[in-house]
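Format notes (please read before filing issues)

Several people have asked whether sequences and structure tokens are stored in separate files. They are not. Every record keeps both together, in the order shown below: the sequence lines, then the token lines. Line labels are part of the format and must not be stripped during preprocessing.
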Amino acid sequence: MRKTTNLADLVSLRTLEKIQDNFAEASGISCVVRDLHGQALTKFSKPSRLWQAVVKHKETAQFVQEKLLATLDKCLRTGQIEIYQRYLDVYAFVIPIHINDKIIAFFIGGLARTGNPNMELCLQESQKLGIDLDSYLEMYLELPLVTLEKFEACANLLKIIGSTLSSSAKEECNAKAKAEEVSSRNDILEEKIAQDSFKLQESEELYKQLFLTINDGVYIADIQGNIKDANPS
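Then the structure lines:
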């Protein structure tokens, strides 16, 4: 994966989390921002009890993490929204966040079901996670029920939000670059002034030594003939 700018350097985490929270509240779909390596940059908005139980199971957590990383890699190559089955018939989407035509992070949203639970699979999963079936089904049914069409519409809405975010971050990045350029020029100018001042000081010292040690008498007078300075000779 390409090394690039950290999104947190351009946009505050508080702003990102506010965007997530508003989206999750409006759509009912959970959301988080992750970096290129799949690490969360923000706190999860609208986390589900089922997902919290799933990620506590080492084997299952590793499986869903591998699926996520594979999807992130695909998203890096295509630059497009990727919708995939994250767990059983629970879907998620990955939306690339671009800055200066480079993907630097992702919106990960979803954990929504598209239908009623498959009882056979739910029984297997509840046993694997060590949860009784009724509790497992209760948590499963708490997940938002959406059609794939609505799911895609929510993903596209978040993509538009991401584009707006990218434009704002790009403008701020350009402003910082200009400020750094001005600061660099000021540093160069200050260094030049310091060098010229040192040279002037050297010239004055050389003139002073010459004025004091020359064998001929030398004096400095103003326009009225008043002597202002004279050497020992």
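For reference, the curators noted about this record: The chain has a mean pLDDT of 81. The longest strand covers residues 102-113.
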